[in-house]
Amino acid sequence: MKIGIVGTGNVGSACAMAAAVRGSAREIVLVNRTRKTADAVAADIQYGTPLGRRLDIVAGDYDALKGAGVVVITSGMNEKAGGATNRNDPEGRLRLLGKNAEIYRDIVPRIAGAAAGAVLLVVTDPPDPLADITREIAGHSRVLSAGTFLDSLRFRIHLGRHFDIDPASVEAQVVGEHGTSQVFLWSSARIGGIPVPALCEQRGEKLEKVRPALEDAVRYANIAIIEGHDASQYGIGIASARICEIVLADEHAIIPIGSFQDSVGVFLSLPSVVGRIGVVKTAEPAMSDEEREQLASSANSIRQALDRIRKS
Ligand SMILES: NC(=O)c1ccc[n+]([C@@H]2O[C@H](COP(=O)([O-])OP(=O)(O)OC[C@H]3O[C@@H](n4cnc5c(N)ncnc54)[C@H](O)[C@@H]3O)[C@@H](O)[C@H]2O)c1
């Protein structure tokens, strides 16, 4: 049970830390452009491991990824460095695609060559079109975009806060792009089996009044974090570690996550059964007409961003 993590900046280090603390694997290998950084992160985390489950965490070159069941790719420019922190910019994280696609064209052949049997989990922004590029280069379909798994957790947190309920008991999903065009499935959001719109009514609230602020808090959560702390890293670290666990244990858990959708020709997130081969099956959730239209428009945003860099 081995996890590879490529890139040991803020996000890669947080993924490693979360996987170590959660006991997600027996072995973690860290690969970074600057080996010294990967060595340092591995050593730092290793010193805490006698307090948890047995773990070997080491740094290595790409060939050390051999035998990994899953490789988390976090290399690339982040939102702050790439100027993607303006809430009024509809492009959002898609602004980072040109630069990060260049980096992916360089590193994915090496990752896919070394970790031939692994599921590749794309975390770098924007993860959906980068997963497309990864799939093309790797030549197989065991590719996931971290997608809206984290956005869905954020949605559950904010709904839990609003209704004063443990977010673990909130069922709610964000689908589509991990970006500004993401789609909130209000029509199927439930707490204790009660639809969220009905819960609002019970409290004398109008859903249309609750929606904008709550959606903005989720859609721009990364920007709010970056305004206080330079990079968003810990939430995605925990979310990525959980995805690795699902893959390594072939759990067949169902979570919102990005995979290639034949029907629209791009990667985007839908609730999906995840196991050792990546996405085993995608479920089409119940959606209102409005949500369905938003999902089509989200697919368009991703497609247009890919078209722009393929033409350039
Ligand atoms: N999917 C998500 O939910 C999510 C959440 C937070 C951040 N992110 C994204 O994760 C990525 C990493 O963010 P970060 O804060 O860790 O950035 P960072 O600047 O801290 O780290 C960048 C990493 O990329 C590597 N890198 C940079 N240029 C490279 C190149 N040319 N070749 C090989 N490696 C290179 C660096 O060595 C470093 O390991 C960003 O794209 C960020 O936007 C995604």
Ligand species: nicotinamide-adenine-dinucleotide
> Order of SSEs, N→C?
EHEHEEHEHEHEEEEEHHHHEEEH
Q: Output the number of helix runs.
A: 10
Indicate the overall shape: globular
Return the structural class: alpha/beta
Number of β-strand runs = 14
Number of self-contained structural domains: 2
Strand content: 15-25%
Radius of gyration: 19 Å
N-to-C CA distance: 40 Å
Report what the structure shows:
The protein contains ten helices and 14 strands. It is of the alpha/beta class. It folds into two domains: 2-145, Rossmann fold (3-Layer(aba) Sandwich); 148-311, Lactate dehydrogenase/glycoside hydrolase, family 4, C-terminal (L-2-Hydroxyisocaproate Dehydrogenase, Chain A, domain 2, Alpha-Beta Complex). The strands form four sheets. The protein has a six-stranded parallel beta sheet, with helices on both faces. The mean pLDDT is 97. The structure holds nicotinamide-adenine-dinucleotide. Residues 7-12, 32-34, 74-79, 96, 100, 103, 106-107, 123-125, 127, 146, 150, 178, 231-233, 236 line the site of nicotinamide-adenine-dinucleotide. NAD(+) binds at residues 7-12, 100. This is Malate dehydrogenase (NAD). Belongs to the LDH/MDH superfamily.
